[in-house]
Amino acid sequence: MNIHKLLIYITATAVSTYLIRMIPLVAIQKKIQNRFFRSFLFYVPYAVLASMIMPAVFYAAGDLRASAVGFATAMIFAYCEKNIVTVACASCIAAFAALLFL
């Protein structure tokens, strides 16, 4: 790939990312009053993050059963309100142990 095409791709990506973030900021000047729309905007980042992470969760360990064990462990620790480092470490250890024993 030559440098000219690469610069065009980078510029197109930068412009599209910039427009996606700037158009709502410029178009909506006053505070949003609608409760439904405000709650929708509040939960969008969590929904997007979950939709990006969930497919990778079940294929990360290479074995569906081990990944499911790691996921279940993470859900239990998160439900018990452990911090994120504890949840991540426990789920990784559980998935690794499941890979060894399953």
From TrEMBL:
InterPro entries: Brnchd-chn_aa_trnsp_AzlD
Segments passing through the bilayer: 6-28, 40-62, 82-101
Record keywords: Membrane, Transmembrane, Transmembrane helix
Keyword Transmembrane: yes
Alphabetized Pfam families for the sequence: AzlD (PF05437)
Name of the protein this chain belongs to: AzlD domain-containing protein
Organism this protein belongs to: Candidatus Anaerostipes excrementavium
Taxonomic lineage: Bacteria, Bacillati, Bacillota, Clostridia, Lachnospirales
